[in-house]
Amino acid sequence: MSVSVLFLISFLLHAFVGWTVAPDLLAVHPLLGMALWVALLLSALLLPMGFLGRRIASPTLATRLTWLGLLCMGLGSSLFVLASLREVALLAKQGFERIWPATLATADLASIRFDTALLVPVLGLLVTLWGFSNARRTAAVVRVDVPIANLPDALQGFQIAQISDIHLGPTIKGPYLQRIVTRVNSLGADLVAITGDLVDGSVAELRDDVLPLVDLTSTHGSFFVTGNHEYYSGVHGWIDTLRGLGIQVLMNDHVVIHHHHDAQDPKPATMVVAGVTDFGAHHFDKAQRSDPARAMNGAPVDAVFKLLLAHQPRSAPDALQAGFDLQLSGHTHGGQFWPWNHFVRWQQPFTAGLHRLQSLWVYTSRGTGYWGPPKRFGAPSEITLLRLVRA
Fold first, then answer.
1. Is the pLDDT of residue 198 over 70?
2. Mean pLDDT, all residues of the chain
3. Keyword Disulfide bond: yes or no (predicted)?
4. Where is the domain boundary, 94, 119, 135?
5. Do 119 and 143 belong to one domain?
């Protein structure tokens, strides 16, 4: 998207809020209307810097402008949604009064317009501040039991810690990731799964910020699959970098794990841990087309449990055909903040949580970080601890 188009879209979105809300605020008090227009103008100018700030030569100025731009993006989004809902409600009020004038003994339209005009910026600011607090805190641990038929004793209680969609980049740095790693390590998981979109930037920009991953601990190690943002950020460099940190990167392939509770177990259980490239990887590298069936090639026939890591939930139908028992995904962020959580289902079969697709369980993480605006409202971030239990 060109710079001019980006600024045009930003100005149009903010202008809509001004045209629909500011006149009624002016009627309440002239300073309120003027203050809204000034705030909207500043936000419209700053919002594109969330995308363009990295182009500025001064690192300090680039970081500050990027932060301001992304904060304005979150605020502007909420203001636009609230202003749109207000217009719909006012039109509905007018329509009902025309159709049933005698049955609506409610407040007059002018009073409603003034009250709701003040409500839009107040609610927009409160939602943005609340969403900022939710986004910047360390993700809470969400514990999920996954019932598996005929699960052997050796895998009863097997724990998988999943982190996803951290999006290291302009506003998420190494200390944020270190807090996540510390919390994951406190869980004592048997395996750590990183289901893509770890980074939003090149290896040169973020090499130091991923170093906390070296400290991840679990019984069988850490496994990573690519998300779409790795392909925007130089995927080949990131694959090499993560492997150098001791992370096992799965690219349409698998590893075999033999697990037992302790040395007294007479027979350890054999399980397959597979991973596929991002669902859209072939658009960037045809050789990396996502392929769950290929990821199962050569898997032992006596494997009692088959796990697939796939960034996007829409890999699930192919995972089902390939014979997997559980797919772990991310990508959706759970919508990240209202009302966008209601639109994710148009693009992905699952938005968040544990779902069943015939014999396949699919768990979709809401993500451990955030993308774009530092804002989470109605879709909190998570570190997921999945526990296998006998059905």
1. yes
2. 92
3. no
4. 135
5. no
